[in-house]
Amino acid sequence: MIDTVIFExxxxxxxLIDLVSSLLGLACVILAGRNSKYNFWVGYLYTAxxxxxFWNKNLYANLLLQPVSLAINILGHYRWTHPKPEEQxxxxxxxxxxxxxxxxxAIICVVGTLLVAGxxxxxxxxxxxSDPHPYxxxxxxxLILLAQLLSxxxxxxxxxxxxxxxxTQIILHLSVGNVFMxxxxxxxxxxxxxxxWTWIKLYRKNA
Length: 207
What we know:
Layout: E1 5-9, E2 12-15, H1 16-33, H2 39-57, H3 60-81, H4 103-127, H5 134-152, H6 158-175, H7 180-204
Antiparallel strand pairs: 1-2
Helix pairs in contact: 1-2, 1-7, 2-3, 3-5, 4-5, 5-6, 6-7
């Protein structure tokens, strides 16, 4: 089922799982960029689709990411809908307001992401030698984890990280000969730019 070819693009087959995961992913980030809590419901389906997608592509770091992504999605769903009194949006008391990282937290995020990516890449290179680009795969993995965590906490810097993810994923997919997914990632990139500006405005409005 997941290997069903829907159409070809530039001589490369586009599988059903590619199309389904792309549509779910786009729906998820568009809803998140518009500050909608319903992005989490789509996110649950997206996580399941990505598991099968990465299994099919032998991208094991991203494959192993999915249970962690699910946990972060659950955390974000709860945090967005159960804010503490001082975290409530000025426009909706039942919603978490957009905030930003402190300078020290930003440094910890950067250092932690580099350490996780390096260690995971070294481990993956030895456990799964069939992974064509273990370190690049793990850089994407670490950035996605960071972006998801910041998004679950509604930090507007999450969109900066998502932009890095989009650019890195374009490189990753092109490196394994995937033509369809770089196009999808370009759409993510456009949405990320728009969402970054939207969340900065929400932050300024204390919303």
